[in-house]
Structures are given as C-alpha cells and as structure tokens.
Amino acid sequence: MSDNSNAIAPLDASNKYNKNTVENTLTVTGTKKRILLVSLFTNFFVLLALYCGVISVLLPNHIAQIDPANKANNLAIVMTTALLFTILAQPIAGALSDRCRSTWGRRSPWIVGGALLGGLAIFGISMATTVAGIAAFWLMAAVSLNCMNGPLATVVADRFRPENRGIASGFVGAGSTAGGTVGIILAGYLAWNLQLGYLVFGLAIAACCLAFVLINREPSARTLPTEPFQWGTFFKSFWVSPREYPDFGWAFFGRFTMYLGYQGVVTYQLYILQDYIGLSVQESNYAIGTISVITLVTLLFSGLISGVLSDRWQRRKIFVFASSVLMAAGLMLPLIMPTLTGMYIYAAILGLGYGAYTSIDMALMTQVLPGGGKQAGKDMGILTIATVLPQSFSPILSAWLLSAFDNNYSSLFIAAIIFVFASSFFVLPIKSVK
Q1: Which of left, alpha, beta for 128 (phi over 0: left; psi -120 to 50: alpha)?
Q2: Helix, strand, or coil here: 315?
Q3: Which residues form the Major facilitator superfamily (MFS) profile domain (predicted)?
Q4: If phi over 0 gives left and psi between -120 and 50 gives alpha, with beta otherwise, what is residue 239?
C-alpha cells in the first residue's frame, strides 16, 4: 500500500518544479530528525568499521599469509586495482541517484543495492587464496560500497536544513571516527579467523543499510521532473571549475591532501608495529586494538566539543585548520619515540585532531556545493573522491617510499606530516564559509 504522505510534491499548475515545496517535504524535524541522526551515526559507524577493519587489519594479514616476503607491494597492488575502477564510482552513483525516480526515493535504492552487493563481495574475499583473487573481490566490494556511500552522504544535504547540518555533520563524523576505531579493534581480535572477520563486516553493512531505508523512509521521487538526458551534458557535469567555484576547489584539495597523509600511516599501521616498533604478529594485532581504543576516546571527546563550539560560534575553517595542525604534531611522536609508548601518545594526539576534523569537515563541504546544492548527489560524490582517492593512492606512495628508503618506516611519518600540515592551509582561502 502506498503512503501518499511520503510522496514528493508534484509540479505546480505552471508545470514548473516547486523547489521549496519539495525541500520542505524532504526536510525532517522533531522525532524523525532525531531518528535520522542516530541512523546516520550507526550507518557511518558500521561503514567505517568495515573500511578500516578490512583495509588496516584483515587484508594486510590475509596478504601476508599468502606471500610474506612481498606483503607491502602486494597490498599496494590490491589497493591500486580498486583505485583504477572506483575513483568515479561515487560521483557517477550520486549523479544517477539525482536522476533516480523510484517509489523509494532517489537515494534509498542505491544505499540498499550497494550495501547488499558490497557485503556479499566482502565475504567473497575470505574465499580467495591468491593476491589476484583478493584484488578481484575487493574491487567488487569497493565499487559497490562507493555507490552506496555517495548517496548516503548526500542525505545530510537532502534532508537537513542548513542551520542543522552542523549537528548532522557531527553525528556523521562521530560515527565515522568511532566506527573506524572500533573496526580496527574488532578486526584485530578476529584476525585469527579471517573468514569470520569478513563475514561479520559483510553482514553488518548489509543489515544496517537495509534497516536505514526502512526506518527513515525516503519520500517517493516518481513525480519529480526529469531533465532530458544527454551523454555529453552528463559527463561534462563532473567537471567543477575551480575558477568558477574556488571554494569547492579549495575544500576538495584540502581534504585530499589531509587524507593522503593520514591514510599513508594508518594503512600500514600493522606493519609499522611489526617492522618499525619490533612487535610480533600476535603482539601487533593486540597493540593495534589498544592504539585504536586510545584514539577512540580522544576523538570522541574532541569531536563532540568542536562540534558544539563550531555551531555555537558558526565557525568552520578555524576548526579544520587547527585540527590538521594537531594531527601533524601527533605524527611526529613515533619519530621522536619509536616505541610502543610513543605509538600510544601518537594515537592520543592524532585522535584529538582527527575527531575535530571529521566532525566539522562535512558541514563545511555542504556549504561550498555549487549552485546551493542543486546537484548535491553528484557534487558530494566528487568531494568524496578526495577521501577515496588517497585511501587507494597512499599505499602506492607508501610502498614507493619504503622501497626508496630501504624499508625505513620513518619515511611514512615524515611524508604524512608534510601532507597533513600542508592541508591546513588549503581551507584558509575559502570565502563562503567562516
């Protein structure tokens, strides 16, 4: 049975798209807003738990079991393979979701479909006995989950008023950072049984996204007008001119540079504990869990405090700038103290900076979208490339640095410091956001 109250308003009498009416129908308030906030927290918690648990722990352990001597290069191959095919997955999925006209809305079909296919592919990795097999299944998972992630992130721009996007960003940031930490902890304890680890993460993302669309029913999009489709116009829309939209460009490059430095260390954290700090395989799997707990505590504290202060003062840039500088400072600790204690202090400082960064960054992003967010799905997908691309590219850079500097992991920290510190200055020229 259809629910007419969930249908998006049709065209008005003059056959024009009544944008305000549609936005008011999409916007959530009261109890629905609170439920959506909790749902966003939960979904991004599970999604980032999967990404970080699989990328930082399960894949490195799996690859090391197959070919211990070439583990660093093989990990780079697996991540690079996914990069080549997923770099445009989010913006394309976002653009197609902008045009989606289903009874379940524009975003929900992509959220559910991507999660189900991605979860199945994650479990498929556990069946792989070669590096090529791991790469193939991870590619399928990465593409599917990216097609889900873009439309899911667009929910913030779709369904929250601009004045409420700070708190929405805070929930997404808190869920993401906490999920990433818990995912590494959980994966560390499941590393003894890789098949179980992959199964847990695959089932979790599929169930979570299905529950999300059922609980937070998106209004039907069947009555929305659709502009004529032209391939040339479609592909040209993915180029957002930095000259015409400079704030969008600065935000993109700032996020890209920050994640390039951050991911370069986090992706190789297990190998850092083994080959730089000198722990055994078992010790490093447990130590990475302790590091993640420390990071979780500090990032939750900084994320909540910075989110409240940012909304109260209506300032975004200063928080993004300061958090990037703090992260760069944290990355210096393992160079000064190449011990497990140094890694613990590094984790605490990095958590303070990363928690503040992620809790404010999305709110800033939604405020620099071209045309006020007219094509939010596509544009948020483009901005997400600045997160996805470094996740795939940083292992290549890290593997090259390790090869160039005789497997000296201090080179990874030096490169990370340079990139993260540099990223703090990209936010300063943004004019449309304070």
Answers
A1: beta
A2: coil
A3: 37-434
A4: beta
Tokens 């989606």 -> residue:
100
Nearest-angstrom CA–CA distance, 134 and 123: 11
For residue 386, being part of any structural domain is answered with yes
The residues, any chain, with a CB within 8 Å of residue 380's CB and separated by 6 or more, are 94, 150, 153, 154, 157, 365, 366, 369
CATH of the domain at 130: 1.20.1250.20
Crossing angle of the two packed helices 71-86 and 59-66, in degrees rounded to 10: 130
94-132 exposure pattern, b = at least 16 Cβ within 10 A, e = fewer: bbbbbbbeeebbbbbbbbbbbbbbbbbbbbbbbebeebe
User: Which token pair is 274?
Assistant: 């083994």
Residue type for position 19: K
Q: Which of 47, 54, 13, 79 is nearest to 391 (CA)?
A: 79
Provide the residue range defining the domain that includes 416. 239-433
User: How far is residue 357's CA from residue 5's CA, in Å, rounded to a whole number?
Assistant: 38
Specify the pTM. Answer: 0.69
Number of domains in the chain: 2
d(CA 210, CA 214): 6
Residues comprising the chain, all counted:
434
Classify the C-alpha dihedral 273-274-280-282 as positive or negative.
positive
The total of other beta-carbon atoms located within 10 Å of residue 194's CB is 19
Q: Is the dihedral of CA 420, 70, 293, 177 positive or negative?
A: positive
CA-based nearest residue to 291, from 205, 397, 184, 378: 184
Q: What is the band of 270 on the pLDDT scale with cuts at 50, 70, 90?
A: confident
Question: Is there a single domain that holds both residue 308 and residue 185?
Answer: no
102 bridge partner residues:
105
**Within a domain: residue 16?**
no
328 in the same domain as 206: no
Please report whether residue 389 resides in a domain.
yes
Tell me which residue of 434, 425, 151 sits closest to 316, measured CA to CA: 434
Do residue 139 and residue 256 come from a single domain?
Answer: no
Task: Mark whether 203 and 254 lie in a shared domain.
Answer: no
Model pLDDT for residues 364-396, shown as the tens digit of each residue:
777 777 766 566 667 777 777 787 778 767 877
Contact present, 266 and 57 (Cβ < 8 Å): no
**Among 160, 185, 219, residue at a domain's last position:** 219
pLDDT tens digits for 187-222?
988 888 999 999 999 999 999 999 999 998 888 777
